[in-house]
Write the structure tokens for this entry.
Amino acid sequence: MSSENTAVLIKGENLRKEFQSRVGGKRQVTRAVDGVSIEVYRGETLGLVGESGCGKSTLGRLLLRLSEPDSGTITYDGTDITNVNMHDYRKEMQIVFQDPAGSLDPKMKVGDIVAEGLELHKIGSSRAQRRQMAQEQLLQVGLGPECMDRHPGSFSGGQQQRIAIARALALSPRFLVCDEPVSSLDVSYQAQIMNLLSDLQKKLGLTYLFISHDLNVVRRLSDRIAVMYLGRVVEQGPADQVCTSPRHPYTQALLAAVPVPDPDVKPADMELADISASVPENGCAFLPRCPYAKDACASVKPQLKEVAEGHFCACHLFAEQ
């Protein structure tokens, strides 16, 4: 987790983001991202996992500056980009959204969708050249030239996500945020898209932040995994270690909830309490649901501590180890 690591491509330090709303006439503040520091190394896939509403998509958007942090810094390839004009950096960083049907303009032809970024950044000398470049991107994701003049609505969900990936790759980015890219797809299409993303990473040397609520999906693709709970990263480490030797009670509960395909295997006996319980202002956010809570959990926020090589956990169970 050293910020001096030369392999770091993008880094967020102490990032915070709050959203305000009114509920019953009262102002309510939601800490979507609460002091998160995170690094993604060149060429790796960092999986970011957690329940819906934990802040993982907001964190991904902060790193891309699609949403502005309330505080904290973002460094890309050694340059602080927290307050810079992002136009040139958009070629370096792209995003694939959860719902391809919602992210693709239904009135545009597929060829124009993929070529739109090329035109915006003035890549290619003519419309014909940009069209050729778009066609090459579609071929790269397994779609033929006959797709160019069709509209997104005429494709299946899996094909639409391929189009969205082609659009994201058109500018030759180095860093790609994949925000729940398979959660809206049928299981058969999920496997195809995950295989495609893996193949593209090897071929193009891409770096991924892969966001999902599904630990099975994250484990399959990720080199490292960060587990997020109510705006904070509570565990982070090599994917195999996090999944086979989880340290945080929340990670243990997530793994216990993963369906077991063997009917003779008894599911792990650990359930999460209702998330509706109030969270202490200064203590551990997981306190109301934790079966191992101790006195310090109510008043002190646990910080990430290295519990094994490269494996970090924010839990008072490890405070004295």
